[in-house]
Each structure stands twice: as C-alpha cells, then as structure tokens.
Amino acid sequence: MPPKVPHLMSLADLSVGQINRALTHSAALKRASKPLLGPYTPSTRSLPPIEQTLANKTVALLFSKRSTRTRVAAETSTVLLGGRALFLGREDIQLGVNESARDTINVLGGMCQGVFARELAAHSPVPVINALSSLWHPTQILADILTLHEHAHLFGGSSKLKSDSDLLSLRPLTVTWLGDSSNVLHDILVTLPRLGHQVRVGTPPQQAYQCPKPVWDRVKELGCEKNIFWTDNPYEAVKGADVVVTDTWISMGQEAEKAQRLKDFQGYQVTEKLCKEGGANPDWKFLHCLPRKSNEVDDEVFYGSRSLVFPEAENRKWTIMGLFDMLIGRWTI
Q1: Rg of the chain over CA atoms, in angstroms?
Q2: pTM for the full model?
Q3: Aspartate/ornithine carbamoyltransferase Asp/Orn-binding domain spans which residues (predicted)?
Q4: How far is CA 293 from the centre of its chain?
Q5: 289 is catalytic
Q6: Catalytic residue among 112, 224, 275, 289
Q7: What is the pLDDT of residues 65-116, one digit of tens each?
C-alpha cells in the first residue's frame, strides 16, 4: 500500500510533537546551512554538505499575489536541498481561467514532486504545503516560534543549546495580538496555546474583525480557547505581554475598505506609550510578518531594540526549508 500523501494546510493539522519536530529540524538545517553560505574558505570546504533530499525534484510554487519573503524563502530553500523551484504566477497557468483546481493539481502532480500553494491539497497526488490562504498561514507561525526560541535568553531562558539537534528552551509567554483577525492570528490561536503560551487578542469590536467560525471551531476542537483572552481594548490586550504581534490592517484585495479600516483601527498602533500604559512586561519584544505600514507600529518600536522582525523574516526561509525537506523530500513530519 503506497504511503499517505502528507499535506500541511494549517498548524492545526499537526500534533504538538510534529510542530516541535518541524521547529527542531528547521533550526538544525539553519545551523548546518549558514556556514556554507558565506565566503568560500579552506575551512568551509571540509564542512558536511546539506543532504539533497530534493535532488531531481521540482517544487511548483503557485502564487496569485505579489510576494517577497515567501517566494524568496521557497526558491532558495529548494535550491539548498538540491531541487528546482518552478514559479507559476496567475499569468503563467490556466488555473481559475480555463482549468479547474482539480485538473491543475493533477497535472502538476504528474510533473512535479511537491506544490507550495494556497489551497490545492484535496486532489493532489504529491505533498502540498499551504503558502498562505485566507484563513491560515502555517509557515509564518513556525518562523515566529523559531524566532522566539532563538531569543529565549531575552525572556529569562538559557542562551546555550544542550545539543546540536535541540532548541533553546522557551518559558511560557504571554503573546498579544493587536489588529485584524487575519490568517496569521488564526494559526497563532491553534498553535501557541498548545505549546503552553497565553494569547491575548485586541481587535476592533466590529464583526468584520472577529474570528471566523471555522477557525474558532478548530480552536475549540484543540482545546485552545481556555488560554485565549479577547478584547476590543488595546490597553487591556497588552497587559502582561512578553511579545506584541501585529500585521497589516489592509490586506491585498481590501483596498476599497482602507478608509474605514484606518478609522476602525485608531488606537491600535503598537507604540512604547501604549505598551507602557497598558502594562506590558518591561522587556517586551515585537513581531510583524511584513510588509509593514507605520500606522500599524511606529518607527521607534519597529526599528528599535524590541524588534525581532528581521530575524523573524529570515526564519521564513529556514522553516519553509524544514517543511520542504520533511514533507516533499521525505514524505514525513
């Protein structure tokens, strides 16, 4: 009997053990790869190569919108693992124009060995990893969690690894989200509570910014709701926060709502003043998945010592590489 094709649509699909394995594996690949990417020297010549689990394999990258971090992370990860990345934008293929999603994925599955796309897993004969969808963004949250582990010493943890295959131990954190109920938040809600963290969410009171029922159903199914606090008061949301996270208030396709959204999100900008008056922990840190606008977070926070944004962005590469290696290269997680 052939093995079951592994897919990843949301971190809700993974057990805690699988999430931790993905994080540990991504961190190990990062440690092994980084020395190989610098200037060539006699010492680098003797370093062990990265196992080429994608050798002779092609990964189809299906993108319907512009992308910086996701595309660059996916293409460079595939190359490091010995594979070829095939970028397919909306102008490149028939999907959604003259061909159904089912037909497209069956064609791609006959020619490629993995697909990095929005939502095409249902009929795919090869592994599909969700690059981002309207409800979920699993690769972003893996990158966020890896970033927090790497900076565990900033939260009172150790700065020394126990072994080369380990992660820095991270104490239970209070993570505050300020902003829209977006795909990034949704994967936070089904993941961080299961890893022992508290999530505090601050969103405007309008229904448009509340958690969609399919997402909240998964939250309850996984038993995460008891570790989630929801409010429309941003000062209340940041109380006790170790980490403050936000995202764009106006996603691609929502441009017509810009004026109303900016009005609704007044008071939600992440600033030193807001977090101090709201009672965030003195050493709180900041995350943002990018791209960022200054109305979401001011320059003082975004470019200051609290910001982990650019290490977080780099970790998109390593967590995507980890998933490609495990799911597409090895068919396991």
Answers
A1: 20
A2: 0.94
A3: 173-326
A4: 19
A5: yes
A6: 289
A7: 888 999 999 999 999 999 999 999 888 888 877 888 889 899 999 999 999 9
